[in-house]
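Sample intake sheet
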Amino acid sequence: MSIDATKSRALCTLRENTWLHFSCHWTQKYEDPFNSAFLMRDQPLSLLNITQTDLSRHEFTFISACDTAVSDHNTPDEVIHLAAGLQFAGVKSVVGTLWKVNDSTVQCLIEAFYKNLCGDGKMNYK
């Protein structure tokens, strides 16, 4: 894990960018969804922290973490998961996962996704 992978750095990145790509671990708390969190180096970055950030100008977020769009099996329409929380906070488009993913599989998915989205697989920042 990078030394920059801290909660405060992630919050700064959220505020400074309109396109985001998270590649990290995530923990879902079905009984307390706003305390679900990205597992950062120093402390968790919770869904509550994210939803308290103005993301209304954000265009896109790709989340490379396990189960980021999975809800509780008993109440599938009522639970807030990470992908939905990002959309509630204002992100216009979110890609999340419905299952556990391993690094090699997600690497193939990401390469194919960005190649389809961008042609050469690289973002044009202009």
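Comment: DSSP finds four helices and six strands in the chain. The mean pLDDT is 82.
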